[in-house]
C-alpha cells in the first residue's frame, strides 16, 4: 500500500531525464491525467529542457514547476548540504554508494558515471524530503532510473519505473535492468513485449511486479474532423525525431521507388519533427520537390491539426516500443502503415486497423502505400477500426488510472491493473 505524508495524501514524485520534452509528450499527459484523478504529483528532471521543447502553455507551465537536478548541483552549498546523510545516516549513505557501484556497466567510464548519478541522487533525495514525497516514479530504464533508484534509497521511499523500448531493452547489463527491477515496488511495462524482455533480464522471483500499463493519448483531441484539402495527392504524415532509428530514409526511398516505377506524382509526405538527421534527409528528399515537406517541431495542438488534413500516417522505424505517434494518428481516424516489430503488433492488426510491413524494406513499404491508395476512401475503414482500438486500450485517462492503482495498492495479482476510481489509499 502506498505510504502517505503527514496530511494523509500520497505525493508522487515523477523523474525523467528531461521534462517536458517534445518527443515525450505522453509523460506530460500522464502527469496531467493523474492529477485529474486527484493524485498529488510533483515533477523532477535531471536537466532542464531547451526552449524548443516548450511548444505550448502546458509545456511552459510544466517547465516552470519542475525541479532540475543539474541546476541544483551548480550550487556548491546545495551539493554539500545534500551529503549530510554521510554524517546523519552513514549506513544508508555508504550502502547506497555500494549499490551504485553494483549497477555500473563494464569499464572505468561506467564507474565514473555511477559517481555522477550518486551525486545527482543525493540532491534529488534532499528535494524529495523537502517536498514530502512518498513515492518516486521514473520513466525509462537508463540514466534517470539509475539516479532514481539511488535517490529513493537515500530518501527512504518506494521506487518504481515505466519500462519502454528499445533503448531500455537493448543493453540490460549496461543499465543494471535486473537490479532496478529487483529494487522496484512495481514496473509498468508499456507492452507485453516489453514485459517479456524484462522477464528475460530479471530474476523470476521478481516477475510478479512486472505489470502492463500502456502509454496513452487523449482520443478526443485527435478525433478526425476533416481538415481542408486543397491538394488531391495522397497525403502521408510522419511525426517524430529525425534520427536514423526512425527509418525515414526507407520511407523517402519508398516514395522515390513509386515515382520511378509509375511516373506518378500522386503522393506527398509531411515530416513533423527535428533532429540530427534532418540535413541528410532534406538532401535525400530534394529530388522529390514539393512532395516532401519538413515542418520542424510542432505543439500537440499543431500536430493534431496536421493529422486532421492527412490521409494516412507512415512509420518506417527500425526499433520502437509502442509508438505514441501511431496512437495519435489512429485516434485521428487515420489508416497507418508501420513496421512489424517489437510492440507495434499489439497496437496495429494488419489488414484490420492498419498495414504492417517488414522493417527496412522500401519496396514492401511502397507496395503498402499502393495498397492503401487502392482501398475504398483511402482506407477509411482501417482508420475507423484503429480509432476504436485506441479508445479502448490506449486512452491516457484509463491508463493513468491503472497507474494510480499501482501507486495505491502495489502490483497486485493482475497483469493489467484495474483502473482506480479514487487516488486515496485504502484503509488497512
CATH architectural arrangement of the largest domain: 3-Layer(aba) Sandwich
Report the major sheet.
7 strands, parallel
Give the termini distance in whole angstroms. 8 Å
- Report the C-alpha radius of gyration, rounded: 23 Å
Strand residue content: 5-15%
Poorly predicted spans: none
* CATH class annotation of the largest domain: Alpha Beta
Question: What is the CATH T-level topology of the largest domain?
Answer: Rossmann fold
CATH superfamily of the largest domain: Glycogen Phosphorylase B
User: Which class do the helix and strand fractions yield?
Assistant: alpha/beta
Count of individual helical segments? 18
Count the beta strands.
13
* Bulk shape: elongated
Number of domains: 2
The spatial strand order of the largest sheet comes to 3-2-1-4-5-6-7
* Overall pLDDT confidence: 92
Q: Determine the fraction of residues in helical runs and give it as a percent range.
A: 40-55%
Would you spell out the secondary-structure blueprint of this structure?
Layout: E1 11-18, H1 25-36, E2 40-47, H2 57-64, E3 67-68, H3 69-73, H4 76-81, H5 85-88, H6 90-102, H7 108-131, E4 135-139, H8 143-155, E5 159-163, H9 167-170, H10 177-183, E6 186-189, H11 192-201, E7 210-212, E8 234-239, H12 248-262, E9 267-272, H13 278-285, E10 292-296, H14 300-308, E11 312-314, H15 324-331, E12 336-339, E13 355-357, H16 362-374, H17 380-393, H18 396-409
Parallel strand pairs: 1-2, 1-4, 2-3, 4-5, 5-6, 6-7, 8-9, 8-11, 9-10, 11-12, 12-13
Helix pairs in contact: 1-18, 6-7, 6-8, 7-8, 12-16, 15-17
Amino acid at each position: 500500500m502506498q505510504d502517505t505524508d503527514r496530511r494523509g495524501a500520497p505525493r508522487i514524485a515523477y523523474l525523467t531525464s528531461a521534462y517536458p520534452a517534445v518527443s515525450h509528450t505522453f509523460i506530460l499527459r500522464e502527469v496531467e491525467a493523474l492529477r485529474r484523478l486527484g493524485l498529488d504529483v510533483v515533477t523532477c528532471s535531471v536537466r532542464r529542457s531547451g526552449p524548443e521543447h516548450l511548444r505550448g502553455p502546458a509545456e511552459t507551465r510544466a517547465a516552470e514547476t519542475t525541479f532540475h537536478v543539474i541546476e541544483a548541483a551548480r550550487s556548491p552549498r546545495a551539493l554539500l548540504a545534500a551529503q549530510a546523510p554521510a554524517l546523519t545516516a552513514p549506513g544508508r549513505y555508504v550502502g547506497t554508494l555500494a549499490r551504485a557501484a553494483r549497477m555500473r556497466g563494464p569499464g572505468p567510464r561506467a564507474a565514473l558515471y555511477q559517481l555522477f548519478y550518486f551525486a545527482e541522487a543525493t540532491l534529488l533525495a534532499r528535494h524529495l524530503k523537502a517536498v514530502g514525497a512518498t513515492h518516486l516514479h521514473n520513466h525509462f530504464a537508463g540514466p534517470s532510473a539509475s539516479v532514481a533508484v539511488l535517490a529513493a534509497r537515500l530518501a527512504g521511499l518506494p521506487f518504481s519505473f515505466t519500462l519502454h523500448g528499445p533503448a531500455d531493452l537493448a543493453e540490460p547489463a549496461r543499465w543494471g535492468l535486473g537490479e532496478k527491477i529487483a529494487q522496484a515496488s512495481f514496473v509498468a511495462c508499456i507492452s507485453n513485449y516489453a514485459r517479456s524482455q524484462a522477464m528475460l533480464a530479471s530474476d523470476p522471483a521478481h516477475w510478479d511486479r512486472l505489470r502492463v500499463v500502456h502509454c496513452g493519448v487523449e482520443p478526443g483531441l485527435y478525433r478526425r474532423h476533416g481538415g481542408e484539402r486543397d491538394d488531391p495527392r495522397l497525403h502521408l504524415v510522419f511525426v517524430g525525431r529525425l534520427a536514423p532509428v526512425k527509418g525515414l530514409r526507407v520511407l523517402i526511398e519508398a516514395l522515390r521507388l513509386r515515382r520511378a516505377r509509375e511516373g506518378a506524382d500522386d503522393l506527398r509526405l509531411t515530416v513533423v519533427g527535428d533532429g540530427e538527421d534532418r540535413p541528410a534527409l532534406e538532401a535525400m528528399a530534394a529530388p522529390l520537390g514539393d512532395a516532401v515537406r519538413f515542418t520542424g517541431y510542432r505543439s500537440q495542438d499543431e500536430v493534431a491539426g496536421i493529422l486532421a488534413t492527412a490521409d494516412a500516417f507512415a512509420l518506417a522505424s527500425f526499433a520502437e516500443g509502442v509508438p505514441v505517434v501511431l496512437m495519435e494518428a489512429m485516434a485521428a481516424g487515420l489508416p497507418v502503415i508501420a513496421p512489424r516489430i517489437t510492440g507495434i503488433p499489439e497496437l496495429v492488426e494488419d489488414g484490420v486497423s492498419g498495414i504492417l510491413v517488414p522493417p527496412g524494406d522500401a519496396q514492401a513499404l511502397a507496395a503498402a502505400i499502393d495498397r492503401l491508395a487502392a482501398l475504398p476512401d483511402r482506407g477509411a475503414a482501417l482508420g475507423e477500426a484503429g480509432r476504436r482500438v485506441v479508445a479502448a486500450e490506449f486512452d491516457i485517462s484509463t491508463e493513468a488510472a491503472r497507474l494510480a492503482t499501482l501507486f495505491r495498492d502495489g502490483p497486485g495479482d493482475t497483469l493489467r491493473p484495474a483502473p482506480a476510481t479514487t487516488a486515496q489509499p485504502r484503509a488497512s
